[in-house]
Amino acid sequence: MSKFVNCVVCEGKVEVSDELLEGEIITCPDCGSELEVISLDPLTVAEAPEVQEDWGE
Amino acid sequence: MSKFVNCVVCEGKVEVSDELLEGEIITCPDCGSELEVISLDPLTVAEAPEVQEDWGE
Amino acid sequence: MTFKAAIWGASGMAGGEVLRILARHPDIKVECAVSKNKNRQFIWQTHPHLRDEFGTLTFCDHDEAFLKEVDIAFLAVPHGTAVSVIEKYLEKGTKVVDLSADVRLYSAKDYEKWYGSPHPNPDLLISAVYGLPELHGKEIKESNLVSGVGCNAACCILGLFPLAREGLIEEIRIEVRVGSSEAGATPTLGSHHPYRSRTLRVYEPFRHRHLAEILQELSLEEDAVTMTMTAVEIVRGAQMLAHIRLSEKVREGEIWRLYKNAYRDKPFLQLCPAKPAHLRLPEPKMVTGSNQAMTGFTLHEDGRRMLVVTAIDNLMKGAAGTAVQASNLMLGLNETEGLTMMPVYPV
Amino acid sequence: MTFKAAIWGASGMAGGEVLRILARHPDIKVECAVSKNKNRQFIWQTHPHLRDEFGTLTFCDHDEAFLKEVDIAFLAVPHGTAVSVIEKYLEKGTKVVDLSADVRLYSAKDYEKWYGSPHPNPDLLISAVYGLPELHGKEIKESNLVSGVGCNAACCILGLFPLAREGLIEEIRIEVRVGSSEAGATPTLGSHHPYRSRTLRVYEPFRHRHLAEILQELSLEEDAVTMTMTAVEIVRGAQMLAHIRLSEKVREGEIWRLYKNAYRDKPFLQLCPAKPAHLRLPEPKMVTGSNQAMTGFTLHEDGRRMLVVTAIDNLMKGAAGTAVQASNLMLGLNETEGLTMMPVYPV
Amino acid sequence: MTFKAAIWGASGMAGGEVLRILARHPDIKVECAVSKNKNRQFIWQTHPHLRDEFGTLTFCDHDEAFLKEVDIAFLAVPHGTAVSVIEKYLEKGTKVVDLSADVRLYSAKDYEKWYGSPHPNPDLLISAVYGLPELHGKEIKESNLVSGVGCNAACCILGLFPLAREGLIEEIRIEVRVGSSEAGATPTLGSHHPYRSRTLRVYEPFRHRHLAEILQELSLEEDAVTMTMTAVEIVRGAQMLAHIRLSEKVREGEIWRLYKNAYRDKPFLQLCPAKPAHLRLPEPKMVTGSNQAMTGFTLHEDGRRMLVVTAIDNLMKGAAGTAVQASNLMLGLNETEGLTMMPVYPV
Amino acid sequence: MTFKAAIWGASGMAGGEVLRILARHPDIKVECAVSKNKNRQFIWQTHPHLRDEFGTLTFCDHDEAFLKEVDIAFLAVPHGTAVSVIEKYLEKGTKVVDLSADVRLYSAKDYEKWYGSPHPNPDLLISAVYGLPELHGKEIKESNLVSGVGCNAACCILGLFPLAREGLIEEIRIEVRVGSSEAGATPTLGSHHPYRSRTLRVYEPFRHRHLAEILQELSLEEDAVTMTMTAVEIVRGAQMLAHIRLSEKVREGEIWRLYKNAYRDKPFLQLCPAKPAHLRLPEPKMVTGSNQAMTGFTLHEDGRRMLVVTAIDNLMKGAAGTAVQASNLMLGLNETEGLTMMPVYPV
Ligand SMILES: NC(=O)c1ccc[n+]([C@@H]2O[C@H](COP(=O)([O-])OP(=O)(O)OC[C@H]3O[C@@H](n4cnc5c(N)ncnc54)[C@H](OP(=O)(O)O)[C@@H]3O)[C@@H](O)[C@H]2O)c1
Ligand SMILES: NC(=O)c1ccc[n+]([C@@H]2O[C@H](COP(=O)([O-])OP(=O)(O)OC[C@H]3O[C@@H](n4cnc5c(N)ncnc54)[C@H](OP(=O)(O)O)[C@@H]3O)[C@@H](O)[C@H]2O)c1
Ligand SMILES: NC(=O)c1ccc[n+]([C@@H]2O[C@H](COP(=O)([O-])OP(=O)(O)OC[C@H]3O[C@@H](n4cnc5c(N)ncnc54)[C@H](OP(=O)(O)O)[C@@H]3O)[C@@H](O)[C@H]2O)c1
Ligand SMILES: NC(=O)c1ccc[n+]([C@@H]2O[C@H](COP(=O)([O-])OP(=O)(O)OC[C@H]3O[C@@H](n4cnc5c(N)ncnc54)[C@H](OP(=O)(O)O)[C@@H]3O)[C@@H](O)[C@H]2O)c1
Ligand SMILES: [Zn+2]
Ligand SMILES: [Zn+2]
């Protein structure tokens, strides 16, 4: 059985594994935002600061 | 029934219609050369001078 | 079952692209390729990438074209020249997709305003459907006469309809950047390589004819919109940047929901991610050669300003791709038939 | 039946192209896409044109990759790093197509000469087949280990084998022009846009590693050949100009016959016309995005000098396309499966 | 009299351009070219176009640089690294033109806001003059420390100051298109040719650091301005499109008068004609290699909407050209000395 | 003293470049700019980069042109149309530099062979000097009629004369790559951006008219030479790759000595270094906008095969630059007057 959490950016449903840990970073497959698990019960995520590849601009 | 003539450039077989006329220009589908019918019997063709589109070089 | 197609303007840029698509279409076969100037020449003499397609098929002229029995006719001819061809085909009961601008507008008054002369057959405007399957799929299925789309118009409409139909657009400034294939296959001073190369030529400061289609399809007021065109160093591609003032403050999540809902079940519409930032806003490069329209957006922190960016390949989603998509529906085929080619990236 | 594939180097240029092809392949499915650096990231985060393909598939690392059961593994990794991966897959009984240069040469001596160090596992060289289906189709069908091709090598071999196997090449000077995608996905000074843009950088005056493959496949003597490389302003594409001194005087018609016979039943080999003159000699532009190799030639009036020009898309016929073509044969599929996409022209 | 100059960052993009200009400057001579990484290498090993200039001059490192007596130092170094160099030169009584962003803003608070950390020496901000001679010629003449300009900022300021100083700008949406040389000489993923080529990458949707300079120099409120950046397929060049809502209705003639007056006696500012239409709005192509800034405009028929377009060569007017122009004034020379080279058109 | 010049073909590509140069020439002033089609239009209406040059000067037609007293006339007109203009000017005692091909060859027989019709005034061929100052400086000084140079010819001759005059060239295969400005200012299908863009069009497999000049100036036998042309994605530039079989084995040092001696005191000829390898062989990018010709070479380890590469800007050293250089000599000025502009790199 899979759990879901709502992405805080695009409000889409993100499937998460059962073994999720606090502090883990997951990526929203819809909008690509990185979400940090800040609590497990209730399952809550917050946007993680973006670590960008160097695209040089 | 269709007739054939050999292209004088690429030596490929070119299908020609029955109503072919002397002086008619046909194009070889293999190599694109323009062939002028210089005699009908025997069916003989020669390379026609190329009239080029203006590609500007 | 295989349907037979005639392509008018087959020696041109958009007509050549219809040929390119149909060369691999499982259910539509090219029966005749029409060109007055290239009459009797092999198709590959004009289109070198079609060297091994269509065997010894040659272009035919107008009269010969009308003698061929076909199920559908694609007209990729200059605007103003399609109407008489449409009339003849409709009479014969042949379905028509007209890529020109001749039947894109519903209102004869609008046509006259934007194209500078009265429409020769306003009845056609009433019976024709605007050929954007994403908006008019149902009507297209039941129509015998479907217009193509302006490439810039298609790009803008696909990127903006989710917002427009919610009434969220208060004011909008549209930038469109276009490649050189948009102007067709005939050389001009503006397309001469030394001048066209690496250009950033701004050629319409406030409006462009395609605006007529945009206003019509998005139900916007002309005064709320400006549209600026720039010719850029690409061959294929159109990109819209729409700077929008929203009519009310919205949350980013709401916009996402709007777009996801609007694009769901639209096989050719793609939504860009919010992250990584360099992929958030699409460019034509990402869709070259495909029938996809890719849209990304970003909301200003004030919740009222918004930037929407959409990218298409003007010859595909902006012309031939959408035309074949419409023809699929008209012929009872699956919308995506023959149109699932991947973008060529990077190119 | 659907086969499962692993792609190594899936974050790279050639690996990305394998993904692009397999996204539409009817019989091969991507089971795992391997990348150490992009491990756990979605594929579209690296390849924006694959946004709606492969669902939520993420890159996996090396260890995880070996746990997946696959029918075939594509290795698009730097040369020198493939051998150990090949060994593991062969042990498991998995077929391998290795796009790197690790098993392209049959002779360990040649490998050492051209790559500067002894080959770590010369037995592989013996068992591997050079992966150009146009020359080795039969062996490829029966092999578990097939090499990819050097993109420049493939371009040259396909353009020259009809002459070479008749022993007609006495001396040959090869010019190859290449696009920037040939050097892979990692930025360098040479690929930095301000310097790479509009370049005509001649970077190998007399030879290039790919010459090893050319000599091997065409049975030519090194001394009879020079090969000069130029980086040009394209992203995709390789073009060979071969200036040949023929070993005997020939008529143009004989050359035509040679090429027609050699290319017959080779679905991806195309021969250019002799006329019109501007289409006689091909350019990469004409095959972009496709798996085609297009060849044209012209014979000097002295009957001894000849120019052969061949154009390919380096990522397709020069890398991923040929690799998938080989894999089709290895898996018992039709050679052309998944590879019939049209060129995107003009672009 | 000949003045001696030191160029820091001489191995970089902007520093290389200072070298290129000074190679022909009648009154300023390059005394030292500073680079840590290229220390002891000949200048032409980095800059191939300078092969026959500067004889056997080699790059020198930082310590050696400070030992040379020079009249003026050009700092073309990354922002954040200039301050300590400035301090040393000012101490020695050497005049400085700092092309980096370190002393462009007058307010330390603004600096912190836009650059993310407190300024290490706010006093410098007070003493420095913003180095745009068209606006601050008099102060520059009397200053020992002059900043360079942000290239996008220079483009915008020069195109807009005639309107801004009349208070005519109510709201403004700025589009800037930039070439690849703007990001300097170091390769990144974004500058990697396969990705950078033919790009239309929108990378800052609403603001860009250079906006700080624009607001400062044009006395505009941040909320009235947005600025969107797009990387385009050129190496040199920046182009501004400014979509303006004027604070009052004006006649076209008034705008012409404003611009003519403002540009009079500004040797590098050019005004485009109103006709022919395709030359009304400038593109970088028209000024490549020169120190010119070219501006065109068009007024909407409502008299309130206006489009202003300005084009510069980012390495010249946007960096090295303007820096040398400022140095001319600081050294008591004619403003145009060494800067009258013609644009290279078409290129 | 200031000399007055007439420029014929001033609306064209080469004529525009003469204007660009003379706009900054210290001693030659444009007295009249001739164009039938642009008669009475301002010069900047055709040449946007000349917006602030030449004040209100307008193009004049042929008759008006002959009424102006000038010291020198530059003819940048299509080949075949120059002779009658030359005749009139010579009659009036006006010096002429004819950029067209009308008086480049010394032999009327050669002219007929390469240009397909008898020369209308063979006496001119005898009196005219081939206008390459590096080879014929002395004769040019004393002549009233000097030809311009074929741009490809100039590129080849400058790169090869040091070898040729030593009799070292046994056989040679020349590749020339050219930009789009070479074909002039008139649009054609081949210059149409969608087709010309990113092209690698090989359009002359074995010879090109400019070969006539090369054979003449280098005293080579036609049979020992082939020349292949490729149109590439640049606007300005010509690059020669000459694959040479030397008539005897030589040491690299000897070649260096030959080139250094030959290029000494030739202000526009530059020799590339042997190292670093990526700068050894020049590209047009390195000389864009300048009057420089840059040559590099590399010798095969067999001591008999050699590659020479030369790059120029076709509009400068290949046309207008060399023409002005010749005119400087004809007028008793310093050869480099008005021609010392730096290349614009990178661009
Ligand atoms: N290019 C695009 O991106 C694009 C996008 C969307 C829509 N469109 C629309 O598609 C149409 C064609 O555009 P294009 O860019 O392909 O132009 P194009 O390359 O100039 O081609 C026009 C074609 O029409 C034919 N033609 C010209 N006059 C004709 C006439 N009186 N009757 C019948 N055929 C005639 C020409 O061939 P012959 O002279 O040999 O007959 C030519 O093949 C236009 O209406 C355009 O608005 C183009
Ligand atoms: N580009 C072409 O036109 C072309 C044509 C023919 C053949 N090829 C061959 O294809 C191969 C890949 O070329 P490319 O151009 O795609 O290069 P690329 O873009 O640099 O990609 C190389 C890939 O290999 C992975 N990789 C690096 N080191 C590795 C290692 N030790 N073990 C496993 N994977 C490793 C990299 O990803 P991670 O670091 O994330 O794992 C990356 O995805 C080369 O052997 C090349 O010769 C390329
Ligand atoms: N490119 C433009 O269009 C442009 C326009 C306007 C202003 N600018 C400004 O000009 C400056 C240089 O830009 P660019 O584009 O030329 O960048 P660049 O090509 O990266 O060059 C930077 C130069 O700075 C040197 N450098 C790096 N770190 C240094 C340090 N800590 N101390 C001293 N020197 C250091 C580097 O050489 P070594 O590492 O060998 O010393 C290199 O030569 C930047 O501040 C930029 O904002 C650039
Ligand atoms: N482009 C190059 O790289 C290059 C290099 C070396 C030499 N050249 C030579 O320079 C000459 C001009 O070449 P281009 O590339 O500048 O060509 P272009 O751009 O086509 O210009 C030709 C000019 O000649 C004028 N013209 C045409 N017919 C004429 C006639 N019968 N009498 C007088 N003027 C006439 C035209 O203007 P109007 O019709 O308005 O009078 C036009 O200004 C050619 O002979 C060419 O071989 C060119
Ligand atoms: Zn999300
Ligand atoms: Zn034939």
In short:
The complex is a heterohexamer, with 2 copies of chain A (57 residues) and 4 copies of chain C (347 residues). Chain A has strands spanning 3-6, 13-16, 25-27, 34-40, 43-47.
Summarize the topology.
The complex is a heterohexamer, with 2 copies of chain A (57 residues) and 4 copies of chain C (347 residues).
Chain A: E1 3-6, E2 13-16, E3 25-27, E4 34-40, E5 43-47
Antiparallel strand pairs in A: 1-2, 3-4, 4-5
Chain C: E1 3-8, H1 13-22, E2 28-34, H2 43-46, H3 62-67, E3 72-75, H4 83-91, E4 95-98, H5 108-115, H6 122-127, H7 133-141, E5 145-147, H8 151-164, E6 169-178, H9 193-196, E7 201-204, H10 210-218, E8 225-231, E9 238-246, H11 252-263, E10 269-271, E11 293-299, E12 305-312, H12 316-330
Parallel strand pairs in C: 1-2, 1-3, 3-4, 4-5, 6-8, 10-11
Antiparallel strand pairs in C: 6-9, 7-8, 9-12, 11-12
Helix pairs in contact in C: 1-12, 7-12, 8-10
Bound molecules: NADP nicotinamide-adenine-dinucleotide phosphate (4 copies) and zinc ion (2 copies).
Number of alpha- plus pi-helical segments of chain A: 0
The coarse silhouette of chain C is globular
User: Radius of gyration of chain C, Cα only, in angstroms?
Assistant: 20 Å
Give the name of the CATH superfamily of the largest domain in chain C: Dihydrodipicolinate Reductase, domain 2
C-alpha geometry of chain A: globular
At the first level of CATH, what is the class of chain A? Mainly Beta
Helical content of chain C, roughly?
25-40%
The main sheet of chain A comes to: 3 strands, antiparallel
Given helix and strand content, the structural type of chain C is alpha/beta
Distance between termini of chain C? 36 Å
Average pLDDT for all residues of chain C: 97
Compute the number of strand runs of chain A.
Answer: 5
Organism (chains A, B): Acetomicrobium thermoterrenum DSM 13490
Protein name (chains A, B): Alpha-aminoadipate carrier protein LysW
InterPro entries (chains A, B): LysW
GO molecular function (chains C, D, E, F): N-acetyl-gamma-glutamyl-phosphate reductase activity; NAD binding; NADP+ binding
